[in-house]
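Reproducibility note. Readers wishing to regenerate the assembly model reported in the main text can use the exact inputs given here. Chain order matters: entities are listed in the order in which they were concatenated for prediction.
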Amino acid sequence: MWTYILKRLLHGLFSIIGASLLIFVITRLTGDPVAMLLPPEATEEMVRQMRATLGLDRPIWEQYLIFASHALQGDLGMSYRWEMPALTLLLDRLPATIQLASAGLLFSISVAVPLGVLSAVYRGSWIDRVGKTLAMAGQAMPNFWVGLILILVFSVSLGWLPAYGSGSFRHLILPAIALGSYPVAAQTRIVRSSMLDVLDSDYIKMGRILGASESVLVWKYAFRNAAVPLITVLGVYFAAMLGGTFVVEVIFAWPGVGRTVVEAVFARDFPVVQAGVLFTSVVFVTVNLLVDLSYGVIDPRARVNV
Amino acid sequence: MLANNRQQTSQPLLEVNDLQTHLVLGRGTLKAVDGVSFSLNRGQTLGIVGESGSGKTLTSMSIIRLLPKPSGRIVGGSIKFDGIDIVSLPEKEIAKNWRGNRISMVLQDPLTSLNPVYSIADQLGQPFRYHYKDMSRREIRDASIEMLRKVRIPAPEKRLASYPHQFSGGMRQRAVIAMAIAAKPELLIADEPTSALDVTIQIQIMDLFRKLQEETGVSIIMITHDMGVAAQLCDRVAVMYAGRIVEIGDARDIFKRPAHPYTQGLLQSIPKIGQRQKRLYAIPGQPPSLFNPPKGCRFADRCPHRMPKCDVYPPTVELESGHSAACWLLESKA
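Running the prediction on these inputs yields the following structure tokens for the assembly.
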């Protein structure tokens, strides 16, 4: 078990190094941050001096090694713009992002699970078709568009919910729906197809033979089996949401990690962008590991020999 | 606690009369069970023997009303259980008051019959929870331990908390049998309950069925393609071929004096100790398609005794008390 976890952590470390290398190179291809930090009338000398202070005059591999060795000590560099450590900046914004991602995930599950289960139980009926259509629509609409439509309908026209900002539960509703509507389709499909498999199994037939009611069979005996593949995608989607709230956070002016990173990209605030990507890859690796470990909780067969 | 108090009459427990079960599929209607009749007395075992596709499984699924959805349906005939025609009973009534309680079943593969993510205790508790609603958790636990003891699972108190993957194949089938008989059904259908198991385990499970029948008086329908199993365990045997019963009778009579050429062929294909044959006997040919079954005898194309008459379906001839077969060869004996 422990060797397994260790092996997974090592794999994860490689992924994280890869991601950090990639973002390091890409940011430096986008242009020169100094141009944005200094006034237009700055002299050549001032530019050169600024570059030297930021370490941007060294070869890129040297820059990366400095970055990596600092990163290992928990120092991801100072934000050019905010004049505070990039890590602190992101950690300050993290709770807001976790809150939004959790709410988005909760929304998607609470739609996808009943929809997927009912679509499987009443396969081919109107509810199956409605489920399919809804799920497809959710996947077809980009979340910035869903966000804008939600704002137009519920904030501008109806005036029920605030259009942007944070601080209360009411502020959370629209961004959570905008974020959570995309994965509904995939989650519904997974729940539906794994439910179909399970409902066709001998142990469900055995339950019928013993006189079980359909609701006990579906929600107790079938659903727990069907939940295993769902958990996998939930983990992946939660990770994707944590690191992928950029667009929704910008639209709803949500003070989270995503918006901070997007702003940093525009300002060529390299340390913050690098820290953001590093953060996202760490989240992915951790969540995937946790997901794999959680199978044992649901499925006793996975408990003994991992 | 219930079954033994029910009225003991000479009336058979189960009377199936001219049962017709069809599967309505995309490419046509499969007449899987086409006019099957038999009866079963209390405490007796009926073997239904036949090759795959002969309709033996769908006959039993018609009795417990678990035909494949939405294709399967009973289109004719009656199934009288204790004098009540259960074909006309609504699905809800069957599910609530019949399955598990009066009619139960053991499936072929014990590896897939148990839910992998629930403990034996939870699954074995099902029949008690469904049919004896006033039992407490404690009582259900005690009753479950008693059931495991009944199917000869050692150290049942410890085994209750196990999960199916911690059981061997034979133990799983024992646990499934325990579940199936826990609510004291009067009829237990066993659909090839040993064909997924090792030979030594097969014998133990067969032995268990016999003992359980002695202890509880349950009637058993044993579906099998194995004449040996039928010979060991059954009081009566029905031989099915292409959706119909071609011969039925007391096991002794069937094995000593098989009348139908198909039954004779089946018995010939059992390897015998002491006789080294170059090749095992196999009946040549394939059974006819049941989408559009032939009008005459369905075995005619494979029969060594084929006659022109066989183009008309042969009448059922009673050869001796309770032993009858449908074949033109027997016409003179009628």
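We highlight two features of this model. The domain at 94-201+227-263+279-302 of chain A is CATH 1.10.3720.10 (MetI-like fold). Chain A touches chain B at residues 201-203, 205-214, 221, 224-225, 298-301 (CB under 8 Å).
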